[in-house]
Amino acid sequence: MYExxxxxxxxxxxxxxxxxxxxxxxxxTSWVLFLKYLHDLESERRDRAELNGEAYQPIIDGPxxxxxxxxxxxxxxxxxxNAAKVGDDLVTFVDRELFPYLASFRQSATGPRTxxxxxxxVFTELRSKFRSGYILRDVLEIIDGLSFNTQDQRHExxxxxxTRIRRMGNAGRNGGEYYTPRPLIxxxxxxxxxxxGETIYDGAVGSAGFLCEAYDYxxxxxxxxSDYETLQTKTFFGQEKKGLAYIIGIMNMILHGIExxxxxxxxSLNENVMDIQEKDRHDLVLANPPFGGGERREVQQNFPIRxxxxxYLFLQHFIRKLRAGGRAAIVIKNTFLxxxxxxxxxxxxxxxxxxxxxxxxxxPQGTFQGAGVKTVVLFFEKGAPTRDIWFYQLxxxxxxxxxxxxxxxxxxxxxxxxxxxxxxxxxxxxxxxxLDAETCDISVxxxxxxxAAALRNPEEIIEAMLARDAETAAILENIRGML
Length: 483
Known about the structure:
Elements: H1 2-14, H2 22-51, H3 66-69, H4 87-103, H5 105-108, H6 115-125, H7 133-144, H8 151-171, H9 173-176, H10 182-192, E1 200-202, H11 209-218, H12 225-233, E2 236-240, H13 243-256, E3 262-265, E4 282-287, H14 297-300, H15 310-321, E5 322-333, H16 342-354, E6 355-362, E7 375-382, E8 388-393, H17 408-420, E9 427-431, H18 458-482
Parallel strand pairs: 1-2, 1-4, 2-3, 4-5, 6-8
Antiparallel strand pairs: 5-7, 6-7, 8-9
Helix pairs in contact: 1-7, 2-7, 2-13, 4-6, 4-7, 8-13, 10-11, 10-17, 11-13, 15-16
C-alpha cells in the first residue's frame, strides 16, 4: 500500500512546475510527511493522556491542525471535500499562514531538543514549492492515507524514504552529498560495535544514515523501558550545515522511530576545536564528511592545522569530539594517506600520535555513485598512539555502478577478518615503526597482491604486430583465390 502511495505522489509531482528534480521531490514530500507524522503523534499522545485522566495540550492548534486544513473529515470520518481548501486558496494558506506559524515555534520552544524546536527549524529553512493547489491537494490526500502508528508501518515508510534518498544521491553531484551507501555504513557500525549508554555523533549528518543505521543496530536486541528512553533521547547527536540535508535527516530519523532527533542546524566547523570541553565529547563518531569544499579563512582559524580541504577540518573536529577511549569510523579521500602537502603530513602525524589507527578499509572505485574519487575508511580509537595498521583492500569482483551497487555480502569478509586482523590476499599489517618518519605516508600498497605480468618491450610488440599483419594478408589471398 505504501509503495503504491509513494508512486502516486511521484506521478503527481511530475506535473508540478515548482518540483524540478529528485532533490525537490524528497524535500517537498518530507514536509508533508512530517506534518502527517506530527498529527499521528499528537493523536497518540492525546489518547494516552485521556487514558491517564490527564489534560493534553496540543503542539499544533486550531486552523493549522492537519485534520482541519489538510484532511478535514465529516462526522462519519470520511474526507470532507466541502471543507477542504484547494487551488490558490490552499497555496496561499500554506505559504502565508501555515509556514510562518510553524516557523515561530523556533522562538517559542523551551529548548533545542524539543519537538517544537525541530518544527520551528524545519519550517524556517523550508519553502513550499507547490504552485498548483490542485496537485498539493492530491498529495495531501495520498499522504493522509499513510499511518505512523505502529513500528512495522514506520519501518516500511522508512525503507521507502531511504529508497528516495538513494535515488536523490544518484541523481547528481549535489544529491550525492547526502547519501552514503548503507552496506558500507552497516559494516562500519559492526566494527565499532556501539553499546547502549554510549553517545554517537555525526557532525556532517546529511540524511542521518549513520545515526539511523546505528539506531537499528542497537534496538535489534531486547530493550528495557530505560534502554528505549536512552536511545530516544541520550544516544544520537548530529549537526548539519545545509538546510535540505537537515530536514531530510530529521524526517529519516523520525521514520526510523526517533521522535525528537537531537540534530542541530549549524556548521560544525564554526566551532573552535580548542574550545571543545569534556561535556561536548562523545563515545563514538561515525561520519562521511564532505570532500573538497573550501571553507572561508575565518573558519580555518578554528583549527591548529589549517587547510582548504573541508574533510581535513572535519577530521580534526572529530578527533577532538571523541572522549578518551572513544572509537571512530570516518570516510575520507584515499589521497589523504599519501599527499605530501604540509596539512596532509601534519594531520596524518596527529592522527597516528593522538589515536590508535588500527584499521584502514580501502574502497573500490564506484563505491560512491557520481564521485570521481576513491575513498578509504579510517577506524581509530582515541588516547594511545598507533602501533600498527591493519589494511583491507575491498574487491567485490565486479565493477560497481548505479545498477550494480555495493551490498552487504561484499563487506562480510572484511567485517569477519577485522575482528582478528587476519592477513591474507586482500589484508595485511603495516608496523608504525616502518613508516617514513618525515611524510608519515600510509598509502595502500598491498604486499600480498599477485605480481603484475611484466610489460613487453617495444621491439616484441612491433614483431607481434607484423606477424599478425602477415597472417591476415595470407588469409585474404586465400579468400581471393576462392572467388
